[in-house]
Design a protein that fits this description.
Strands 1-2-3-13-4-14-20-16-18 form a nine-stranded mixed beta sheet, sandwiched between helices. A six-stranded antiparallel beta sheet has the order 8-7-10-5-6-9. A five-stranded mixed beta sheet has the order 11-12-22-21-15. The chain contains 13 helices and 22 strands. It has about 475 residues and is α/β, with parallel strands linked by helices. The mean pLDDT is about 95. It folds into two domains: about 15-110 and about 260-460, Aminopeptidase; about 110-245, Aminopeptidase i, Domain 2 (Roll), CATH 2.30.250.
Length: about 475
């Protein structure tokens, strides 16, 4: 290498395609990891399902439910809040007074939820009223196959789990769209106004019920629900039922280098943080916690969101059992807040500032700040913290890049980072770059998914 080339590499920062540094052994490990990730996506299309799959995987890896016991180095425990929020912990060799290494992600995703009284019929069709959850582009949800997932709690307190549209041979649901021959007026509207949220009504059937004079189509739908699941229309009022894109996670591209699936925001980071704990053998030096929370897409509100006191209560219980001050433990902790980054899309260059955008296949993104309009809503990581995390990544051979969310003043977004930082825990955002974020079919690079996992693993192990 010439002196000029060496100086260039020293002085200039350039994003590099991670495949140039990937060994054959890492390629095998990456592909194995991504197969497990795709299975996790398929098993957990709602936060309840993702939480349930998380517990299943954790118990396979030797984790047990935490009941307030004094933890010994190497102990693996988990706690669940309202079936939607998971905390997993591995007790390290270090005393609790030295704090935790926290990996925090969310497992909810944008979707359509059924309204409390959803079933109606019109023009001999059965339709379901919905209310969208999280930030969606409404036009993306029409004329696409949808599956029904949910939980129905009966009067006696028992629960019924619903999943229709995922198995081979299952029926699916859809929202009809206007044919182009009659869409001249619709086409003249701004894209955000062309589809009305109140009109995202799901087509659910058309067969009339025999020997009924009224509500014949509606009766057929409800009778089928009752015969299969034992539920009535009254039970739907208290139920949690969602419509999500039907189908499985798939490889994208002839080279199979990408993953396409619903719900990668933010289960791509949630799975990486989870896997980094599950795959860790022996007793780590650090006390490790992985948090997979709910409700991020609507502000982290409510009992299962990151703004709730569930994490604080868990830490207090663990510290109280060990006779350690919880506040002191928190003050010594460190956090990677994991949420997806917007990958630069060459189809929409006007929305990005390319020099400061994450690129597909250039590794996990370290994001100093999120927010919008003057960094509003961002915890804005310090220079000291960013440098420390970057050094950890470099030492472990993690391919990483810096990233921001689009052009200044164009929009913006937030993560759970500020809710962790508000607890006096130094926090920085990291995440997998995603194309078509919040769409029914999001796309990630396999290399970036794997490097997100490696980032958590390096963070957990670093001194």
């Amino acid at each position: 290498m010439s002196e000029t080339a060496s100086l260039r590499d020293t002085l200039l920062y350039q994003k590099k395609n991670g495949y140039d540094a990937l060994s054959s052994a890492e390629t095998v490990a990456m592909n194995e990891y991504c197969e497990g990730y795709k299975a996790y996506l398929d098993a957990g299309k709602t936060e309840r399902e993702a939480c349930r799959e998380t517990v299943r995987l954790a118990e396979e890896a030797g984790f047990v439910a935490y009941t307030g016991q004094v933890l010994q180095p190497g102990d693996r425990v988990y706690a669940v809040n309202n079936d939607r929020y998971c905390i997993l912990m591995i007790a390290g060799a270090a005393p609790l007074s030295e704090g935790f290494r926290l990996s925090v992600a969310h497992i909810d995703s944008p979707r359509l939820d059924l309204k409390s009284v959803p079933v109606y019929e019109d023009s001999d069709l059965c339709l379901l009223k919905t209310h969208y959850y999280g930030g969606i582009r409404k036009y993306q949800w029409v004329a696409t196959p949808l599956a029904m997932h949910g939980t129905v709690t009966l009067r006696d307190g028992s629960r019924v789990e619903i999943c229709i549209g995922e198995e081979e041979g299952d029926p699916v649901f859809t929202i009809t769209d206007l044919l182009p021959h009659l869409a001249q007026e619709q086409g003249r509207k701004p894209l955000a106004d062309a589809y009305n949220g109140e009109n995202l009504n799901v087509l659910a059937g058309s067969l009339p019920y025999a020997d009924e004079d009224s509500d014949r189509i509606r009766m057929t739908f409800l009778s089928l629900l009752h015969s299969t699941y034992g539920i009535t229309e009254r039970d739907l009022i208290t139920a949690e039922i969602s419509l999500v894109p039907a189908g499985h996670a798939r490889d994208v591209g002839l080279d199979r280098s990408l993953i396409g699936a619903y719900g990668q925001d933010d289960r791509v980071c949630g799975y990486a943080a989870l896997r980094a704990l599950l795959d860790l053998e022996g007793t780590p030096d650090n006390n490790l916690i992985c948090i997979l929370a709910d409700k991020e897409e609507i502000g982290s509100e409510g009992i299962s969101g990151m703004q709730s006191q569930f994490f604080d209560a868990f830490v207090r219980r663990v510290c109280h059992a060990a006779g350690v001050c919880a506040d002191g433990c928190i003050a010594k902790s460190l956090c990677l807040s994991a949420d997806v980054a917007a990958a630069y899309d060459p189809n929409f260059p006007e929305a990005f500032e390319k020099r400061n955008s994450a690129l597909a296949n250039c590794g996990v993104a370290l994001v100093k700040f999120t927010g919008a309009r003057g960094k509003s809503g961002s915890s804005d990581a310090s220079s000291e913290l960013f440098a420390r995390i970057a050094a950890i990544m470099d030492e472990a051979g993690v391919v990483w890049q810096s990233g921001e969310l689009g052009r200044v003043d164009l929009g913006g977004g937030g993560t759970v980072a500020k809710y962790v930082a508000n607890r006096n825990i130094p926090t920085i955002d990291v995440g997998t770059p995603v194309l078509s974020m919040h769409a029914p079919f999001e796309v990630t690079g396999k290399l970036d998914c794997y490097m997100t996992f490696k980032a958590f693993d390096a963070f957990n192990r670093a001194k």
